[in-house]
Amino acid sequence: MGESRSSTEGRPLQGQRESLPSSQDGRRVVPQGMLLETKQCSERDCPPDACRVPEVPRMVYPKAQLLQPARADVLVMTPWFAPVIWDGVFDSAILDAQFENTTVGLTIFAIKNEVGGELDGPQAVTLSRMVYPQPKVLTPSRKDVLVLTPWLAPIVWEGTFNIDILNEQFRLWNTTIRLTVFAIKKYVAFLELFLQTAEKHFMVGHRVTCYVFTDRPGDVPRVPLGEGRQVGVLEVRSYSRRQDVSVHRVEMIRNFSRRRFLHEVDSPVCADVDVRFRDHVGVEILSPLFGTLHPGFYGAAREAFTYERRPQSQAHVPRDEVDFYYAGGFFGGSVAEALRLTSACHQATVVDRAHGIEAVWHDESHLNRYLLDHKPTKVLSPEYLWDEQLLGWPAVMKKLRYVTVPKSHRGIRD
C-alpha cells in the first residue's frame, strides 16, 4: 500500500485515461470528496459479504514465532489451504473473540427409515477430475516455518500449496483480479519493469486489469499484454511530500473503489511500483483479506516491530499487543474488505491530522493497526515482498517472488 521500506465498457484501457475534474484555472484537482470526506465505510458502500472479516477486541496473547512451526510432526494445512485441526495449532481465545456474535446450528439426524426426495440448497463447487500427489497427514509440508496462524489463517510459503487445484477453483469462480499501483512523480520510471514482469509472472492465465494511479499519464509505457489483461490509467494529483502521497493513497483507492471497482473486479491487489515480479505470484495469494509479512521483521521479536507507539495516534499499538508486522507494499482481499480497510485507514489518518499527528510509517502504520484488529484470512510470507540487496537470500526463502528494485532513495524522492 504505500512505498514499502526495503467486458471493457466503462473501463479505461491501455492508451486511454480517466482524468479528474479541472478547477477554474485549468489545473487538475482531486474532487473535494476525495480529500475531505471522512465518513467511515457504510453498509451501503460495502455490500453484504458472507466472508466479512470480524473485528476482534484488543487482547494480549503469545506472539506466534514465524520460524518455529506449531506442529512439526503432522500436516496442518492441505494443499488447497484448508486448515487441518490439531491440538497446538490454534489459539482458542482469538477464535472465540472472532466468533463471539456467531450463532451455530447443530443438526442431528435420527432417522429410522430412508426418506426419499432431494433437498434444495447451495451447490458445492465441483472440480474437474485431477491427479496430484496425495497429502500425507503425518508429513508436514514445511518443517522449518509456521504455515498456519493461531487464528487458522494460512501463511503462504513455497511448498504449502498445489497451484493446479487452486487455479481450477478460481477459474470456476470466474474471478477478475485488479492490480493497483501508484506511480507518482519520479516513481513513474519504475512502471515499465513493473508491468513487464507482472505480465510474465502475476496471475498468469487469469483475467487481470492493472490500474495505474499517476500524475504523469503521458509517461505510462505501453507494454504488450496477453488476452484478458488490460492496463487502465487513472490521473491523480501529485503532492510535494512523499509522505503525503503515502497518506492519501488509501483515500484514492477508497474513492475509486466506490466509483468503479465494486462493479468491475472481484479481487483487488494493491502493490508498490518500485518492485518487480521475479517468480510466480498467482491465485494462492487471494483471500477475503490478506497481508504480507515485512521482510525486515519476519524473524524479529515483537519489541523490534516499528509500530506507531504514541497513544495519541489512531495507529497506536501497545508493545504487548502484537501479531506480525505487515508491509505496506503488498496487500488485498475482496472488494468489500478492501473498501472497509481503506475507509478505516483513511478515517484514522483524518483524525490524526486533526490532532496534529502523523503516524511514524504513515499508511503502513495504520495498515498494521487495522490488521491487528481484523485478522487477515491469509498471510503471505516474505517470499512475496523481499529486498535481496539488503537481506540476501536465506535458506528459508525457497523462492523470491516479488522483490524490490535497487534505487537511490534520495534521487527518486527529490
UniProtKB/TrEMBL annotation:
Q: Annotated region Disordered: where?
A: 1-31
* Active site per UniProt: E364
Q: Which cofactor does it need?
A: Mn(2+)
- Cofactor comment text: Binds 1 Mn(2+) ion per subunit.
One Pfam annotation reads: Glyco_transf_6
Topological category with respect to the lipid bilayer: Single-pass type II membrane protein
Keyword set, alphabetical order? Glycosyltransferase, Manganese, Membrane, Metal-binding, Signal-anchor, Transferase, Transmembrane, Transmembrane helix
Where is it localised?
Membrane
Q: Name one GO biological process term.
A: carbohydrate metabolic process
Binding locations of an alpha-L-fucosyl-(1->2)-beta-D-galactosyl derivative = H294, T306, E364, D387
Protein family per UniProt: Belongs to the glycosyltransferase 6 family.
Protein name stated in the entry? ABO, alpha 1-3-N-acetylgalactosaminyltransferase and alpha 1-3-galactosyltransferase
> Lineage of the source organism?
Eukaryota, Metazoa, Chordata, Craniata, Vertebrata
Tell me the gene name. Answer: LOC115508123
